[in-house]
Request: fold
Amino acid sequence: MTTILQIAESQGTFSKVMHSLGNQLVGINEIRIAGREYKRQSEFFDNQWSTTSNSVEFAAKAGIHVDQDDIVRWDSNNQEPFGDMLLDLHEAGIITLNQVEQTCTSKEIKTEQFWKEQFANMEVK
Reply:
């Protein structure tokens, strides 16, 4: 399974690859980011990463922004989009691989904290 670090190392200068709006995922059909694996969808979904019909157009209408920590957020609720949507946005030249990685990592940390709190608050019977 390919990682963002492997992509950056194979394509040249790490910083240039990570901060470029150019599509760095050409020829990549599976990728692991922040411990989660993503696979391209079938031709039925136009070989995009997410199953949201026309995900890039959806994100453009919904509105996204990048915060001071290089994390992509929805304008409506300030939450991070899921990784598959981020990969589609990268391929469309809207966000960088660094923003994909930073956002996925942030979302995974928050998810882990959520579950840790949920299990800590459960009563064992």
Q: What stands out?
A: The longest strand covers residues 30-33.
